[in-house]
Amino acid sequence: MASSNPIIYQNAEVDVILIDIPTSIAAAQGDCERVLLSTTPLEAPIEPKEDYRPKAKKPRANENQAQSAVNTQHVGHRSSPHATVAEASQHDFQSPHLDDLRYKLLAEHALGQIRAQVPGPWCTQRKLMAQEPLRGKDEDMDVDQISEKELESRMKEWASWSESKEDDTAFNLQQMMASLGATSEVAEPATVAPKWMMSYCPARETASSTQVAETVSPDAQTEPWTGAFHNPNHHSLSLSITENTSQPPQLGHEYRFTIPPRSTFFLSDSTASDAFRTSFRELTDEFTLPRHFDLVLLDPPWPNRSAKRKGAYEQVGGMPYLKKMLLSMDIDSYLEHNALVGVWITNKAALREHVLGPGGLFETWNVGLIEEWIWIKTTTKGEPMFDIDSTMRKPYEILLLGRAAPNSWTTMTRAPTVKRRVIAAVPDIHSRKPCLKQLLEPFLPDPTDYSALEVFSRYLVSGWTSWGNEVLKYNWDGYWAPA
């Protein structure tokens, strides 16, 4: 059985952490009998392509001054694995252009600490996805890539289907005419059969995904697909989505997912806020679920030329459009008092402004910044994935953590001292981030009893609510294997 603890190393202050990405996601499923399939871990840094290398630019004067201060005052700490992140954070440069220098210093200290304590590989042994050659015209693509494309296409269709509402005009007209005794003059409204059906039953933890796919449980419940689902049980459910046809399901027309215990998902485009609110009210009423969350986590699809979002969210209008979309989601209406709010950003200074600046997300939601977590992407030997001095691509992403107001009359502001932590992890399949459930729970009033909402998620988490148009992606049985 694979280890269920994703933390490979953390220091006493818990501000330097080495985490394994596939294990962190698997552990958050509440399922220790399966492992998440992965890709070969990175063994050497990636060199940028020549045609993407930017022109050298002259450093700003204040950048030169800050770098000089860093070199002078931290020369003794830079090579010492015993220097703490707290010490590295003392130089809290105020200019947004100098964040890269701060993060570089923090990352170097953290990597030094981990190297001194972890002599072996920086990730656990991975079970790799099959890389079988595809017969046919697309010989450069593998079976898993084709399956992933098909799955993403289906999720987009399911999301659109769940957002569409049946036109009740004919039905309402029929009711009105019936009340007037004129039903014979109005044709009976056509019954629209649902295009997709879903069935679910307790998951067989010891069975492989192939065995589960070939077995239909007599206890399975079948319903029309709605895009919203809650598992009230303390065990996982196997969810099957099929096309509603008279023919038996054919290969490729049935999609199976494992739904973690007490988890809830809304498979819909996050731009469809009204549809989400309607589904949210209906499901929370049906199962008596909380409508406010102690933890809200977002990983917005920020415009990025190097990130292959594969059409997950349309970026017409770029950053202004995305910011407008995020603000229209009314995230603050789902926040519990003192809720913990986290937003992932890349290293672009403009993104910090969109979250932390005047009129930004945190100000609009009345959330004050309290911590910054730096996810540094490394090789198995602890080297940054990219050159940390690169002006084109940085080997890290940032999680901005804030606190919501304790009441309606308090205005939240940035904490006087912002705590910074470094989380190192060897990259996995593109777009997979480490699941931080285990690291975030200590920040909640009761880590054993809380409500959490993750937006733009690509996998489900036991006990959490997930909203987005790819929330089921990595819960598809094709990404899992027996431990």
Topology:
Blueprint lengths: L6 E4 L5 E4 L1 H7 L6 E3 L24 H13 L1 H4 L6 H4 L10 H19 L25 H21 L5 H11 L16 E7 L6 H5 L7 E4 L3 E3 L6 E7 L10 E6 L4 E4 L5 H15 L5 E6 L19 H11 L6 E11 L3 H8 L4 H5 L1 E11 L18 E9 L14 E7 L11 H4 L11 E4 L9 E4 L11 E3 L1
Parallel strand pairs: 2-14, 9-16, 10-11, 10-15, 12-14, 15-16
Antiparallel strand pairs: 1-2, 3-17, 4-5, 4-7, 6-9, 7-8, 11-13, 12-13
Q: For the largest sheet, list the strands in their spatial order.
A: 1-2-14-12-13-11-10-15-16-9-6
Helix content: 25-40%
Cα Rg = 25 Å
Which descriptor suits the 3D outline? Answer: globular
Strand content: 15-25%
The CATH class designation of the domain at 264-473 is Alpha Beta
In CATH terms, the superfamily of the domain at 264-473 is Vaccinia Virus protein VP39
Got a strand count?
17
Major sheet attributes: 11 strands, mixed
Mean pLDDT: 81
User: What structural class do helix, strand and pairing data support?
Assistant: alpha/beta
Could you name the CATH topology of the domain at 264-473?
A: Rossmann fold
Q: Can you tell me the CATH architecture of the domain at 264-473?
A: 3-Layer(aba) Sandwich
H/E order of the elements? Answer: EEHEHHHHHHEHEEEEEHEHEHHEEEHEEE
Provide a count of the helices.
13
Distance between the termini: 5 Å
Q: Identify the quaternary structure here.
A: single chain
Contiguous low-pLDDT stretches (5 residues minimum) are 69-79, 132-144, 165-174, 183-189, 205-216, 307-312
